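Researcher: Next entry in the queue.
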Amino acid sequence: MGAAAESAPRYPSTVAAPVEHELVVKKSRFLALVHPVASVAEADAVVAAVRKRYWDARHHCVALVVGPHAEQQRSTDDGEPSGTAGVPMLEVLRRRDLTDVVVVVTRYFGGVLLGAGGLVRAYSTATSEALDLARLGRRSAATRVTGEAPHAGAGRRHGVLRDWAGGDDAALEGGAYGAEAPVTLRGPPAPQDALDAALAAATSGALTAERGPTQLLSR
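Model: Structure for this entry, 219 residues:
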């Protein structure tokens, strides 16, 4: 797209919808749930629901990553030998550069001991295979800029702004036309000077723009 994309920061992706997957290793069943979440509290609620659903299972191992830059990361082995379940699951999320997601792998013991290495492989594989089934959402920051200008020259103004926005990371949104023509531009928050210049040029200085808060959007 235009100049705005060149300086746009990169954010981890997330999953678009919950996904479930089952892996069987030497008669042990590993039931993996991948679920999008917006907070640690939401992740805790997902884990609680899984525990209630599979109340008779021996282990419910968890890995979660939350935050725009994956700031909050947690894992638990839930009774498995230390480092054989939650951490391998969390490493899969890190390698795939994901955030705002929780993974719960429930294990029904099949009577055959897998050993530490076998557990690491089973939990990481269950997580990886579940994520392979998930549809990912690419994250990007977007600032909504709104303003109004006289109808005169509206076509030229929109053309200039479309050229500036061009591409998938910014969008020029139309609105109802009254005495003045509203303009809404949603896209990367930087560079602001380039956007101001484009708006001024498109309206001969008639458009006064107001910026809303910057939010993360998934595509």
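Model: Residues 56 and 108 are 8 Å apart (CA to CA).
Researcher: Noted, moving on.
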